[in-house]
Amino acid sequence: MASFWTLFKQFFPPASKWSPDEIPDLTGKVALVTGGNVGLGKETCKHLLIKGCTVWLAARSKSKAEQAIADLKKETGKEALFLELDLNDLKAVKESAEKFKSQNPALHILICNAGVMVPPIEQVTAQGYDLQFGVNALGHFFLIQKLLPLLKATSNSLAETRIVWVASSAQFYFKNPPVDYENLTDTPSRKKLGKQGLYTQSKFITVMLGIYLAKLLAEDQNSNVISIYLDPGNIQTELGRNFPPFVATLMAWTILHPVSKGVLTQLYAATSPEAAQYNGKYLRPWARLGEPHPQTKDEAEQKKMWDYCLAAIKDY
């Protein structure tokens, strides 16, 4: 558990020293944003489009994605492209990744933004994994594995490509590290951990995977891909739709910030020239370097989780 002061700063960060106006020209670059149809994802797509980037908006719902694309075109004058992506199903993730690769010779920015928070406890993925682990961590892990060769091929000594993992301060609330692997599938112990515990676990795992990927990328002398993981802050988005109404209202009045602020950290990670030096680094609100949960840095546990995820996707 983080200290009171750490959490206070997360709830009420100082004003950002960075603005989306500082995003460089992205003409000729290609970005893929998961969960791009709402909230932080949609706002991220907007700013990337404004700067000339070719943006693929990945979402599960075609109708919601098309509405978001129409909204973005009205705001920016530019049109995002739709990629159907269901992170709940590993087979579907593979199909989406293959479709993306067939239509794109390059990928410069991959922003793993989509997520679920405290859904009904009975919900699991198509392969039987806890839904929050499956969508927030495993689904993105598989997407990265499928697109990493393209990210590597796109990178060179003068221009890095970037993978941005959107985690959360929820990692600091994960009470019982290391991860109990029984809680990753539909077991009695998973249900005992509860919806909130499963959410904090999924974000703790996201950070571990982001750190370990950065280590592997740093060891690869033949490419220039970087992995950055971050906490966007406490933001008022649809992610909290499963909270009771009175809880959601209370949070909105007290600790939640607008999407315009929440988008800062992932845009900075994805586009800032300075952030090109941040492979393996953790960013906190708003676009500042920070430190993750200390136990996410356990290399043995990172590798154990990495190998578990590799085994989970091997038949897909």
Automatic annotation (TrEMBL):
Keywords: NADP, Oxidoreductase
GO molecular function, one term: oxidoreductase activity
This protein's record includes keyword NADP: yes
Keyword Oxidoreductase attached: yes
Family membership noted in the UniProt record: Belongs to the short-chain dehydrogenases/reductases (SDR) family.
Record-given protein name: NAD(P)-binding protein
